[in-house]
Structures are given as C-alpha cells and as structure tokens.
Specification:
Neutral Protease, domain 2; binds zinc ion; Elastase, domain 1; alpha+beta; two-stranded antiparallel ribbon; 6-stranded mixed beta sheet; 10 strands
C-alpha cells in the first residue's frame, strides 16, 4: 500500500495546501480532523514520481505503444494507489458506479481531444497506458496525478463533493501527465504556475470539447461561467462557485472555511510566497486569464486554434520556463502559423499585454523567418526589425531582395560593429561599384539558394 502526503500535497493535487490550511484553522471539528488527517499522512511518493519521470524507460507503461488503453481501478475506500481491482476498460459496459463511469468518460474525452486536435497519443505520445484509481480513501478531499496514474477521492463530505464528477478536473489531472512527458515543467515558482495553468487550460478545453461549448468576445464580460474550474465539486454549504475562475481570477469563492480565492489576474498582483511551491496554484491565475482572453478574442471552439497555440508553445518550453518564455512561445507560434497580421496573433499579443506579461519582441517570428532565408541570428535580428513594421509577407519580399543584393554578405568583422541594414543602405549598395565577394560567403549564398529550391 502506498501512502501519500495529501495535506501539503507535493504531488499535483487539485486542492492546494493553503485551502487545506484554512480548513484546519477555520473548519468545524470534523472538517479540522479530516484536514489534519490529510496533512498528517506523509510519504515519499513525490520522490517516487521523480524517479519514475527520470527513468521512464523502465516503466511498463512507458513502454506500451499504440492504441487507447484506459483502465479504472477501484481502491474500495482504501488509501492505496496500487489497487488491482479493475472495474472498467473500453470494452466494458458502464458499471453503474458514477465515480468509475464518469472518470472513464472524462479520460476518454481527454485522450480524444489531445489525439484529434494536437495529434498526441496518451501522456507520452506513444500510447502509454492510462490508469486511474477511484474511490480512494474515506472522505478523501483531493484528486491528484501521482506521476503514473490519476487518483480521485470522493470528497470530504463537508466542503467537497466527489472529484470524479467534474470533467475539467479529470482533464486537469490528465494534462499533468502530458506535461510530465513533454515540457517537464518544474513544479515550483513560475514554471510550476505554468504547469498548473496548462492543466487548467486543457482541463477547460476538454470540457468545452466534450460538451460542445463555444466562446465569443461578445459573451458578457462579467459572465465567467464557461471559464470556471471545478464547478460542482463544492458542497452547497460553501460560499463559492468553483475552485478557480480563468477569466476572472480571484473571484471563484469567498468562504469562512475555505478562505478567499487568492489568485491574481495581472502581474501587478503576482504573489511572492514560499507556500504552495511558490504559489503554483495562485499565480497560475495570470496565464489562465491570458488564455481565456485569447480564446474569447479568437472566438469559436477554444480547443481548436487557441488550444493548438497553447499546446505547440508548451512543446517548446524548457523545464524552468517563466511566464514570459511561454508568452513569447505562444506569440511566435501564432504569428508563424496564422500570420503576424492575423486575428490569432493579435489576440495572443493583446491577452498577454492585458495581464501585464511583457513579450520579448525580438523573438517573434525570428526562427522561421531565419530558416526561410537560410540566415543566422544576426540577420534574423535585422529581419525582425523590419517584421515589426511590416507583415510577414512583406518581410519575405524584403528578405528576397536583400539576398539578391548581396546584403547578406555585409557580415564582415565582429557582430557588434555591424551596421543595421536600412533601405537607404541597400539602395546605396545598389549604386556602389561591384565589390569582390569573399569565397566563404559565396558558399553561404550558394547553400542558401539550394535550400530554398
Ligand atoms: Zn494541478
């Protein structure tokens, strides 16, 4: 049997530790006891997860390749994630146990959305087995990804309903599995908040995908009902609508026992804290809002273009990525895929600006433009300056013009002393007598021409 540190939850739990702490301080006797039970349990599961992540090749799951394989196991009220009581796979009819059947459908929706729209097969993109444990513990008020499977309690009976009832929560935990096998975002500080935010983003997208929900900029500004995480898991006695609001972070709940939703909606409210792994469930409100704003501005099915931009940007992240790195990645992908004058690009750039994340403009578009002209980073920077003033198409024309004029061959001496190529200089160069072209540069030019053919 494996015990978990649920209270401080070093795993990727849906209920953050500050909420449990508040319940201990302000709950009634039973709530305090159940919350303290969670905190008192301790284990080395976090270590186990890290070991698993570092040696995925020894996991039988990681080695499994191919078709969709979802299995739901029943812990039968035990606090064990290793139960082998299998209740349902794809070939079985519904069991009549809502926890089992809902989790199965939720995982199926998550798998299909990732496959159909982002061409990703299971967590690892190789068809890794998808296992979930339900009916975990007695009055267990949390749900989590343990590094290998999803685990769901049925709520503490006081503040939380069973977690398997919320499809976005199921998809949130599924996405933690995807992140573990892709960006591997460190679960601390801003990279941890990105980890949490991406889990919310794909959690809500998969809910939209399975329920056919579309979004629009004309949706009432103060109506965030399409953007709430965990609707239905709060008991009626709780004063709140959900765990989080992606569109209006900080407004989801205000309750004597749970406390007040602490999420900021702008970088000006960024919380520097040692708690909650540096605020991973708190500051995630900032990128959450950026996504909701982007999806509303693009309009329609949020799991399509907005989801694609977020997914592809995630694949480019390093494990210690900060908000600005992710913002740049989304902007770059949107520009390259849809055009730097497109609605999609404009929506992404405006959304990050609205939440106070400043984009590094010099990065936008440089990679594909650079490869398109076979140039190096210095030339990319020149192209980028032009790109900021003009659109991508015009830039390509200018790039072709520069190549024809041999402007690429201006790269002499060290980079710092190099002049910026202006239209004026290009014109002047046209008029100047022909200069000898160094041999090495001839080669570069030749290679470039070949590449583009
Ligand atoms: Zn999470």
């Amino acid at each position: 049997m494996t015990a978990i540190d649920h209270g401080r939850c070093p795993m990727q739990c849906i209920i953050p530790p500050y909420m449990t702490d508040h319940m201990v301080e302000h709950g009634d006797e039973e709530t305090r006891r159940r919350s303290l039970e969670l905190i008192a349990e301790s284990s080395n599961v976090r270590g186990q997860r890290e070991v698993r992540a570092s040696i995925p090749q020894v996991s039988t799951r990681a080695l499994t390749i191919g078709r969709k394989q979802i299995s739901i196991f029943d812990a039968q009220g035990q606090r064990s994630t290793t139960s082998r009581v299998r209740r349902k796979t794809e070939s079985d009819p519904d069991t009549g146990d809502a926890a089992v059947d809902d989790i199965y459908r939720g995982l199926d929706a998550a798998y299909e959305c990732f496959l159909q729209h982002y061409q990703r097969r299971s967590f690892d993109d190789r068809g890794m087995l998808i296992d979930a444990t339900v009916n975990y513990g007695q009055n267990f008020g949390n749900a989590f990804w343990d590094g290998e499977k999803l685990v769901f309690g049925n709520g503490n009976g006081k503040q939380f309903n069973r977690f398997s009832g919320a499809r976005d929560i199921i998809a949130h935990e599924y996405t933690h599995g995807v992140i573990q096998h892709s960006a591997k975002l460190v679960y601390q500080g801003q990279s941890g908040a990105l980890n949490e935010s991406l889990a919310d983003v794909f959690g809500i997208l998969i809910k939209h995908f399975s329920d056919g929900i579309t979004v629009s900029e004309s949706d009432p500004e103060n109506d965030d009902s399409k953007w709430l995480i965990g609707v239905g898991i709060l008991m009626p006695s709780v004063s709140g609508r959900a765990l989080r609001s992606m569109l209006r972070p900080g407004t989801a709940y205000q309750d004597p026992v749970l406390g007040v939703d602490p999420q900021p909606d702008h970088m000006s409210g960024y919380k520097k804290t040692d708690a909650d792994k540096g605020g991973v469930h708190i500051n995630s409100g900032i990128p959450n809002r950026a996504f909701a704003l982007t999806a509303r501005a693009i309009g329609g099915k949020a799991w399509e273009r907005p989801g694609e931009i977020w997914y592809q940007a995630m694949l480019q992240l390093k494990s210690d990525a900060q908000f600005v790195d992710f913002a740049n990645a989304t902007e770059r992908y949107a520009g390259e895929k849809f055009g730097f004058n497109s609605k999609e690009y404009g929506a992404v750039a405006a959304a990050w600006s609205q939440v106070g994340v400043k984009l590094s403009r010099q990065l936008a578009g440089t990679r594909s433009l650079g490869s398109a002209v076979g140039a190096d980073a210095d030339f990319d920077a020149i192209i980028q300056r032009v790109a900021e003033q003009l659109g991508k198409k015009l830039v390509e024309v200018v790039a072709a013009e520069l190549r024809r004029d041999g402007a690429l061959l201006l790269r002499e001496g060290d980079a710092a002393s190099k002049p910026v190529i202006s239209k004026k200089k290009v014109a002047a160069k046209k008029q100047s007598p022909a200069e000898p072209v160094p041999t090495q540069k001839r080669k570069t030019k030749k290679r470039t021409a070949k590449k583009n053919s």
